[in-house]
Amino acid sequence: MTGDDGLGGVHIKYLLHCPRQLWLYARGYRPEHRSDAVAFGETVDATTYTRRRDIDLGEARIDWVTTGAVVHETKSSRAPSLQHDAQVRHYCLLLSRLGVNVARGVVHYPLIRRTVDVPWDASARRQAEDTEQQARDVIGADRPAPRLPRTQCRGCSYRDYCWGD
């Protein structure tokens, strides 16, 4: 895998949430359509910031980019997360590889009316490249990563697969 061969934001988010989830997703197991949490997130995305348009980079879909090359991502979560920041850094990396002089990123949490700035500098780029390599390593493994403790799987659309509930 190279940096522009289909590694999207979902891959990064799943890596940091649960490497097993990433491994399964990369092999085509995608139960998200049955998840109420995913449906809720899609509704929040579709009904907030409606004047913005997605930037489609193939596997990666950026919510929007504003003047000055600021990458924006909307999340339905009620709590900021490091995996959200990593997802935005990944988008910044993808755009920079296309020659865009990215300024920074912003994660929007409309349910709690909060935003989180995500810096984009040499350190952030290294983090994004490292995270991308970790994702490639997980995807390339012969076997899935071990299950997380059941308590960390609440709300995960892959829970039935991993735990047989």
TrEMBL record:
Residues 125-135 have a biased composition (Basic and acidic residues). Keywords: Exonuclease, Hydrolase, Nuclease. Residues 125-144 are annotated as: Disordered. The keyword Hydrolase applies. GO terms for molecular function: exonuclease activity. Residues 9-163 form the DUF83 domain. Transmembrane segments: none annotated. Pfam families: Cas_Cas4 (PF01930). PANTHER family: CRISPR-ASSOCIATED EXONUCLEASE CAS4. This is CRISPR-associated Cas4 family exonuclease. It comes from Allonocardiopsis opalescens.
